[in-house]
From TrEMBL:
Pfam (any one): AMP-binding
UniProt keyword list: Ligase
Segments forming domain AMP-dependent synthetase/ligase: 17-323
Lineage of the organism: Bacteria, Pseudomonadati, Pseudomonadota, Gammaproteobacteria, Chromatiales
Protein name: AMP-binding protein
Keyword Ligase: yes
Keyword Nucleotide-binding: no
Signal peptide range in chain numbering: none
Organism of origin: Guyparkeria halophila
Amino acid sequence: MSDARSDSIPLVPDGNLDRVVLLDGDQRWTVADVLASAQELQESLGALPGPVKHLVNLAGRRDQFLVGLVAGILGAQVSLMPSTRSRGAIRDLLADHPNTVILHDGDQPLEPTLTACAPQVAIPPLRQTRSQAEYARQVPQIPRIPRGQLIARVFTSGTTGKPRGHDKHWGRLVANTRVAADALDVHHRRTDNAHQDRLVGIHLLGTVPSQHMYGFESLILAALCGGATLSVDQPFFPGDIAASLAALPSPRMLVTTPYHLHHLLASDCALPPCEHMLCATAPLEPRLAARAEQTLGGALQEIYGSTETGQIAVRQPTQGADWRLMEGVDLEVTASGEVIASGGHVERPVALADCIERVDARRFRLIGRLANQVNIAGKRSSIEYLNATLRAIDGVEDGLFFRPRSAGASDGQPERLAAVVRGPGLTADAIRRALRDRLDPVFLPRPLLLVDQMPVNATGKITRDALDTLLTDSNDSDHQQRDAS
């Protein structure tokens, strides 16, 4: 018979109820504060008519997201984490997951049409005024959670189509946090306990949403399971990022994306020292990494992973191009060339969406996305190369190539690519002329869309839907101009 304790892990593996887990300016909240508010929320959920099996956690604030997550864990309810809170995405979730309750920030009104779709409960705010006696009554000890309990279903961002959900279990999530802290080597206090004090002393600030797998791992889990202290802020603009960083005690870690980092470094904001930086969600240019380390003074590390696998490898771009696999994770190259990630905290074997080159058993290099290989009229290239060529043009501040949904060859006509570009002062013709000097004509984009701002989401990604909307709006504008003439 198995030992029940060996089949479970404490909700907070370090077991410290008094550890500060969240901060907001001068406000500090402990593990006990979070647990007490989570129990209060769970009582509200228990009072609802009918069973509650799933929670759609739409909280924007880190503190309330964490309370909602912990409440779901205590009640064995699965937290559904959509990459967007758009009406369509939430309605799709509710249709696929009966017995779901929507959790939200009390001061953040939801889309009105969602009010009739599912019960809604506001997440209670954290309180600091509990006495030790109240702590002892409400939170007598750290709950233990079965290793196999399903905690969350995290959805892909939709960059390649309809978002898909991927299940995350408690034991794997705790292991994920431990091996990531080891791989990043940012410990500030070590103990003999394998689950304790992994990131104690680190103060985290993130620019990515809590619901995204990267933010969930590197912010929420790092605070809950890893010992870090998490800022409730989620700044987007450079001035806000700089102010939030400056408000944090040292040592600091900025968890961000290439998009946010690029705009932060391009701004004229005064930036405080930042001992650690973490980047993910898109390829990071080595020059940008070098600028970040020179400007902020800390080491910048990059995470490789996906919603399906979680984080599985790390590198410091200024020290080399090789990625190092995290403990327990293995890559297998099949006879067909497919690369399968498995082992460690990876929930199940997953085929990677990238071409890789093995360096040795624990290291590899990324070649590019499998879906980004382009073959037009017998001419081959990659989206990565085309993007690099586009961004090298003087005056182009950002841009990317993409395949329109209807881009497949038909009626004997070859496939065409499109591009979206932010290049103040440049015309589409000027950009095409510059590209013609560097690329085969079959790769010239038709159409080439000029924008004031790239249509990024909160993680710095550009979704398939955003690109489709740009094309639709462009086509509508063209039709209106022709009609007017």
